[in-house]
Queue: 2 jobs
Job 1
Amino acid sequence: MQSLPSHSLSDAAKHFIDKVVLQENGRAGALLAILQRVQDSHARKFLPRETLEYISLKANVPLSRLFSFVTFYALFNLEPQGRDTISVCRGTACHTRGSSRLLEQVMMDLGLHGAEDGETEKLAMTTADGETTLRTVACFGQCALAPVVEVNHAIFGHMNERSLQRELEALEKRETRP
Ligand code: FES
């Protein structure tokens, strides 16, 4: 199992997990629901190692199985996420309509580096200040709107460099507000 960031678990967090496990255990898709609800409750939208250990104990699921589960589903995060999230679709329809240029534009704007060509198919990076997470997705299921970019869970279709720039500037303005 890969080494995960260590974060102690508060009594309130344990109490919340106890409640969620009690409510979900035994239902179809219980594990998915438990992990999703617990991740959503975290201010940085991720599942620290201690959290997975505690869920493993309470839901009586081996830690190795939990880990396989969270690494299989792209919606789970094992690292802290930024306050803002930008997702660029890299599916075929979006790719043919210029999503790689949009991705480069976001990376440049956020000062993110390191993704070589070919490594952008599955990418998740957070800025050094922890403010913004950039990720790529395989398809939003909105191919008719290609190219598609999601900003803080709002879908924007038919994006171009100019409309993307507007969204990035809106995020920056919000961040500099007192
Ligand atoms: S390929 Fe981008 S939404 Fe389907």
Note: Residues 89, 91-94, 139-140, 142-143, 146, 148 surround FE2/S2 (inorganic) cluster (CB under 6 Å).
Job 2
Amino acid sequence: MHIKSHKYAKDGVTILWQPDKCIHSGVCVKGLSAVFDPAKSPWIDMGKAETARIVEQVKYCPSGALSLLNGQD
Ligand code: SF4
């Protein structure tokens, strides 16, 4: 299977998005819709919330499709 991934960075924090892992639970969209909006492209906008809040939301992702990368982008 082709595994795609995308990175989104802000304030030294990098989110890794792996769409093939997403189970479309909607947890991210319901929890922080300003940042996670599937109707937009790119669908993650790191500028719409404080970094700490985005990190908190990423940790709620049940599938691991959203995760945090350590280190530099
Ligand atoms: S919380 Fe994770 S599994 Fe659920 S829709 Fe968002 S990315 Fe996909």
Note: The first helix runs from residue 27 to 31.
